[in-house]
Amino acid sequence: MSATPNPPSALDLLHRVFGYAAFRGPQAEIVDHVAGGGDALVLMPTGGGKSLCFQIPALLRPGVGIVVSPLIALMQDQVDTLREAGVRAAFLNSTLDFAAVVETEKALFAGALDLLYVAPERLLTERFLNLLDRLNVAGKLALFAIDEAHCVSQWGHDFRPEYIQLSVLHERYPAVPRIALTATADDLTRREILARLGLEEARVFISSFDRPNIRYTVVERDNPRRQLLDFLAGHAGEAGIVYCLSRKKVDETAAWLVEQGIAALPYHAGLDTATRTKHQQRFLREEGIVMVATIAFGMGIDKPDVRFVAHLDLPKSLEAYYQETGRAGRDGEPAEAWMTYGLNDVVIHRQRIDESEAGEEQKRIERGKLDALLAWCETAECRRTRLLAYFAEAREGRCGNCDTCLEPPEMWDGTVAAQKAMSAALRTGQRFGAGHLIDLLRGKTSERMQQLGHDALPTFGVGADLDEAGWRSVFRQLLAAGLLHADAQAYGALKLTEAARPVLKGETALSLRRQRKAKKSAPAGRWSRQGPSAPADADPALFAALRAWRAEQARAQGKPAYVILNDKTLHELAAHRPASPEALLETHGIGAAKAERYGAELLALIAATC
Questions:
Q1: How many CB atoms lie within 10 A of CB 86?
Q2: pLDDT at 481 over 60
Q3: Which domains, from first to last, does the chain contain?
């Protein structure tokens, strides 16, 4: 009688299926905990390897892993990626016709699936819950993975009502382990995830939120279109995302970029489903597309070679900013997070909160989140250190890869300027916005100024030492510091807060950032690119040949190029030039299934090129 073979270990699967030599960070501990039947909440940055934390336990445990994901438009690519690695994966969502649904359900009950991706709306239907009941009775449920778990938070930027109902999994299947995963969540959101999903007893795994390969830059808004064009000049031919606050601005910006010769596409909820799907597929499958979008685009984007994320408008919070910028540089290669920021952003966001129909508690939380974001925009400290501190992660020293580290801002004693600005607001009855107050301070005579009698005020012309941009910077920083408040009920009129009194009376000094001179962004390559890059001994000709081969494969199969092989794998092939199937399997990202499918062609191409 032959001995029963030992079941594969997590490390065996990691190498044989996914082609990776070792786990990163806490991955091994998470996999071991969930595979052993434990519940977990995993906070790990985008590109940190969250998916492996539930994919490998699902392969180790009997039955099928059910992955709850809100990303219907991306499920096909996620499943294609797994199938390329030899994993038996499928999805159920509204894009499938009835025949395809029945076929997938049959495979599910036949034990022919390792992982099934499903949208929360589908999971919560009585039909699907009945399917889960039958699987559970048969002992065929390996685990539940709840991806993008921050969607459960009503205070968050991606709230999905269906996520709150996912507590049914704990109530209905208490013996099935659950793992909730997200790339971003402050302490409040973490507590809400644990409570709403019934994960109070779960182990919490928090990885470093640091993305050292991303450079953070915030520029004071001057001429945003020109500034954006200057920035994009350093990323010619590269894929990226440009975020705007409104649908109208998305459409106008995308059309304008096309006029400038840039391959740009719009994406927002106002477009029909077919257009959104087409644009998203082009972004994922073509090289060098720039997607101009509202926040309707991006969550869960798996494209690893997004080289930049630009914001033309201020996001709602630091969590939203971190989540959106995290879509850049998933491959670990250098990437940029760039944002224009101005006085109007502060006024608009404060008005949005004040005028919303939310309860006072939610408004208080949203104001706190906005204040944290504004303080980050105005900081003279290392941006990375301040960003990580928001997520309760300490970091020593300056990062050397953000604008405030590379060009430390000049600080100045802005006490007198602040007093002049606040006096101007007081003497005009706290009824005017920044534009009128700046004209008043600079002594700009106009018919309206004379009609109001403001040209006779003691503050008229006392700020002639600063230009308009300088005063806008002062008012922006006073708003960000909470010394002034934009009153939504009074059309954005600036009013003093209690915190302004000590500064106005000269009891407290105020240090401000000096307004920077507008300048063009440095061309790509001028700044030191941090993070992994192509090995020094990689053969450029071979890399180009491999890239062309990959593009051909992607076109033939109708899949994104990175699903076939990612850039890091191509770089390693170009550097190590494997000459045998065994050597090929030692390459990062090539497991047994990919070696079997593409090995002969890759080895022949390498031999011919070298």
A1: 18
A2: yes
A3: 10-206 (3.40.50.300), 214-341+379-406 (3.40.50.300), 412-513 (1.10.10.10), 540-609 (1.10.150.80)
